[in-house]
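Changelog-adjacent note: as of this version, every example in the card shows the full chain rather than a window. The one below runs 302 residues end to end.
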Amino acid sequence: MKQDDYFNSQDFRELLQQYEAARRGGRRIYMDGDDLADIAEYYLNNRRDREADTVLAEGLRMHPDNPELLYLRTEQIFDRGHAEEACQEARRILMMHPDHTPTKELYLEILLDLQYCTEAVHVAEELLDRDAYNAEVWHMLADAQTALYHYDAALESVEYGLSVNPGDDDLLHAKGVALIQLERYKEADEVLAEYLRRHPEDDHALYNRSIALTCLERYEDASALLDHATMVSKGQSSEQTQIYLQQAYIEAKMGHRNEALLALDLAKETKQLCPPSDGRHGSVMEDADYENIKAQILELLH
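Full-length structure tokens:
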């Protein structure tokens, strides 16, 4: 959408003053749809959601098919937690305006949120056919491919994204995760270590690197990372249940029975507090999953 420079420009300031003066004076407002979309976006950027809602409602009464207004309204629906409704709205917009890139990118984000990953792959590929230099879309494509267990393809997408934007640290983290999924643990450790040099308090990356180190049988190093992840997140990580279970596994592998049982107890306490998956971080653990993992860890202690 619009850059901050535009919202600071004299042209936009005059446009905003014209709109707000008309509203204060109770006069009927008739403006171009794209101009109203700009005003709504400005309000949204400044957390003036109620005023943005008013502009969008007025704009869509005058310009019911304007793609910018429709896009912003759909984004609002999605941001307020109504993903299914937003998905239907995005599809409707794309039927009318199939080349509206912001809506297609939003649609991709919604599909990932809803875990409609096969469709997400198709949408991401369409976007990349138009613009192969969009690192964020490469990342979303990799997320969809990962959810479909297409790990080689996910790593390839991440590599393409990094070639477009070598400084994208989120993609660097994603590369480390992809390498873990491909059981290339030494490479994963190196990549995640590089990421953590830049983001030493990222609890998700600390957890993921601990997995690579565990698989390399570097148990003490892995345990230290998990302790640090719990410390920096104050025990509130969306990965917290998994962190404790990983800690229990490591302690069991090292023959530390009491420490392993303590970590299991902590996992049991936190598993209902772990928030639902957002497609990249964490997931609620069902009782059956917990009991199965607990049985495996206890078996290591015998």
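Structural remarks: The chain is about 75% helix and 0% strand.
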